[in-house]
Design brief:
Layout lengths: L2 E5 L6 E3 L2 E3 L4 E5 L19 H6 L3 H10 L2 H13 L5 H20 L1
Antiparallel strand pairs: 1-4, 2-3
Helix pairs in contact: 2-4, 3-4
Length: 109
């Protein structure tokens, strides 16, 4: 941990970590223990949507995942593919076939 200079401007002894600093004295203390320490802001990490990762694969991989996925994931895949810069016809047709087959199975029951 880097050390920083800390000056006690109070009228009484101040304790910083395991060091006592008398009034008016300056001592080196660990940066994280200094009362003036402010941690650097952390950058927000973009969370990668697992469905986006699936859609980045080839048509067969997307459709293989879609056959095992929930209805919500299937609809999300359809929406994401339709809104993409270059929607793939094979993926859209395959997702539609899976959705229709699920609808037929639901109606038959």
């Amino acid at each position: 941990m880097p050390l920083v200079a800390f000056t006690n401007t109070k009228k009484h002894t101040v304790y910083v970590g395991n060091k006592s600093i008398k009034a008016g004295e300056t001592r080196e203390v660990e940066e994280a223990l200094s009362p003036n320490f402010q941690p650097a802001p952390t950058e927000a990490v973009d969370e990668i949507d697992p469905l986006e990762t699936i859609l980045s694969g080839n048509v067969e991989a997307v459709l293989a995942f879609a056959t095992k996925s929930s209805d919500d994931d299937l609809h999300a895949l359809q929406d994401m593919e339709e809104e993409s810069e270059a929607p793939r016809k094979g993926v859209l047709e395959g997702l539609l076939k899976i959705a229709l087959s699920r609808a037929d199975l639901g109606a038959a029951e």
